[in-house]
Amino acid sequence: MEIDELKAIVEGLLFASGDEGMTLKQICKVLELPESAVQHIIEELKYDYERKDRGLMMMQSHEVLHLTTKPEHSSYFKKLLELPQASRMSQAALETLAIIAYQQPITRTEIEEIRGVKSDRPVQTLLSRALIEETGRKETVGRPILFRTSKDFLTYFGLTSLEELPPLPEATETEEDTKEADLFFERFSNEMDD
Q1: For 105, which of 3, 139, 146, 169 could close a Cys bridge (C-beta 3.0–4.6 Å)?
Q2: Which residues, listed in sequence order, are joined to residue 56 by a DSSP beta bridge?
Q3: CATH fit for domain 3-71, picks 1.25.40.10, 3.90.550.10, 1.10.1040.20, 1.10.10.10
């Protein structure tokens, strides 16, 4: 593989790893390359990011590498945060919100077991929109955070209590139950689009 392709792969890996970032050893393992080769790729990427026409930079903290925005552009990111948030949520966020609504209180790990994929970003999105909230810690190993829907969730969807959520279809579901749940989630998705 050429160096440019390897740099692109490392850049993609760092982007995909999000806030967690990756260590040099993790990158070596994924690329199946020696540490010296990966260190060279990272140095080249850092050099590329130093150019003024690039909006990102690579940061290393406690041996973990992250992609981040450049501090000199911070005033623009501040303006972005001040803009009214688009109400559209990803399918992942909607799935996560539905899981929390029906299974609360629930931990992030339990959400991920149901969805079958990592759910850090959808949970962060829901927390930032105040649709869910932390509700303590589960009395188990590691004491993970428990999440539940917030009062804003009820208000947003015009519910007075969680009992008003349509019943989930069961194995012996009736056509009526299925339609009711489908209509709720269709409304749910449409309201998020508006």
Answers
A1: 146
A2: 69
A3: 1.10.10.10
